[in-house]
Design goal:
This is Integral membrane protein. About 60% of the residues lie in helices and about 5% in strands. The protein is mostly helical and about 300 residues long. The strands form 2 sheets. The protein has a two-stranded antiparallel ribbon. It has a two-stranded antiparallel sheet with strand order 3-4.
Length: about 300
Amino acid sequence: MRETLNLDVGLPGGIPYSRLPLVCCLVAFILTFFVTRTIVRYIRKHADSDAPRKWWQPRNISGGGGLHIHHVVIGVILVMVSGVTMVTLAVDGGVPEFTAASIFFGIGAALVLDEFALILHLSDVYWAEDGRTSVDAVFVAVAVAGLLVLGFNPLSFFDVDIWRSDHSVAARAVVVAAAVLTLALAVVVLLKGKVWTGLVGMFITPLLVIGAIRLSRPHAPWARWRYTNRPRKMHRALERERWLRRPVVQAKLWLQDAISGMPKFPDDALVDQELDREIRAAPAPRQEPVTQEVT
């Protein structure tokens, strides 16, 4: 396929076709910078306004406990995902330049993720409790890279072979429907707060089905929308979460302490404290005040 491309045919402006990815990167960079600056200025201009925001109006992204998530966090995630994608899709692993570039990318990714908590909190929390976020980010990166090395395809729901071999409308409709269904399951799993199930489920699709039909985590958006008026179901979700998370939290704390330089098995009080911090019931959706017009 590559040999059939005529690389002598240039893009408008005399730019060689081989530089199309670089052109797209530059255009995306300029447009994103312009749009980001516009949105940030809009948010800053309306920061002191008490008027209720419409769903389409830009606003700051906040996490649990009022944590403000800056757009640099989104940028780091996109850079990491795109970098791993380009390394994974390298056409020839024997090209020394690709191999050297992948080594430097791995080094840079490790240095960035080791300070991910600083980027997230914009504060030096390396040795603090919030610094554990960096270790979590490294765990995610290692898990994704490991699945890719083992040959798992994150787009396994999209059967490229059928798409290429069978050009009938019915076959392609089935492939697209399966892709849409799988992505919908992934969204449900993430809304239920099961990040690891959703992440690994993108490689192993049956996990998405299991995660979608099981109870939501009690603090997740799904529980906030559907469990706050059903106390028995919320109680089941809390009890189940505490039972399932206890061994995970024990292993997580031990490994995080080992990586941080202080390996020790966490005592029950520390585990209970972490469980109390992580496991909580989602607050009920906020009801917008109803204003009556005076005639």
